[in-house]
Amino acid sequence: MEFMKYIDRLLIKPLIHQISRGKSVLLLGPRQTGKSTLLEHIEKDHTISLVPPGVRQRYERAPSLLSGEILAIQKNMGRRPLIILDEIQKVPELMDVVQDLIDKEIAQFILTGSSARKLKKNNVINLLPGRVVSMRLDPFIFHEASYEEVNNHILYGSLPGIFTTDAPEDKETDLKSYVETYLEEEIRSEALVRKIGQFVRFLEYAGLESGNIVNFRALAQEIGVSHTTIISYFEILEDCLIVERVEPITKSLTRKKLTKSCKYLLFDLGVRRLCAAEGIKMTPERLGQLFEQCVGLELIRNARLFGNCKIRFWSDPNGPEVDWVIEKDRTYIPVEVKWTDSPLMKHAKHVKTFLEEHETAPKGYVVCRTSHPVQLDEKITAISWKDVAQIIPDFLTVLSPT
User: Fold this and answer.
1) How far is Cα 120 from Cα 129, in angstroms, rounded to an integer?
2) Which terminus of the chain has a smaller tally of CB atoms within 10 A, N or C?
3) Are the C-beta atoms of residues 389 and 335 closer than 8 Å to each other?
4) Contact 346/340 with Cβ under 8 angstroms?
């Protein structure tokens, strides 16, 4: 990819805050979301990248080498150094050494990773509480960098390298390279699946079905594998930070049957389109479907960054459904997404039903392409997609008005 101008990331302030508290940080994020670029703007004492094969093999042969090197740095500096260890999942055996150095207050670390799979396998995630703060860097949110037209988010996503590339044909080339290099080849090199051809076909279906409620058995029949294989494929994508899993709200005092199956969203809409082998010409109906995913991804990213909320959805197979529901402390905010620039009360009917059945829900939203907010009724507001970032902070203010 071409040289990329730096755009400030909102995660940098909470990251610096945790470092100033003396904490170490595990910074996870899909490839090319800007982890290394972000860390260039952090004051540190030493950086070790585990990407070069020679470096990786050296530590694989003797993980204890890291301890001696860090002790030498500490002795030379006369204080606890801040060490960046890039792509830690490539040598998960180093985590025992890192844990020991943290426990003995010899060093402070920022560990980066583009996959949680090996870290889970080696039980690293369970070592984190109290020792390491886990953070996540996603593609750009609207508040960091946004196209003027939402169609560009739908077609090209918001990976930093793609966003800062001007020519559409170059964006397309780079997205294709991402899918081929960072998805298919990474899965192949990690030997995560036995039959790569089946997995590549699954990846196309995952792109096409992104944002829909998943029927594992139907998808298995389409691809010609068992439904347990489909489940394992989704687990691989989730562990590699390629999909977001969204759980439904399943409890209701008024409805006997709510959907219990989850939704999976590919983490970036440009990557999704290339996985699905879709072009840039789309019907309004398809744009509306992907607009729903665009808003969903934005809510998920904002929830991680600002509110520690959960994003869910609400669906009665025989009745209403709400695209996205923000949940915190058992309180809900329903959010419906509509491909319209003239929001009316009819667009909010399922939000209204949800609010009637969940009396503690303080308000609801319709996110659309309106140029200005529209009050649809006392508790429901229609807002522009550009203003999605205001929803979660407003929700948190309602929960904790002080």
Assistant:
1) 14
2) C
3) no
4) no
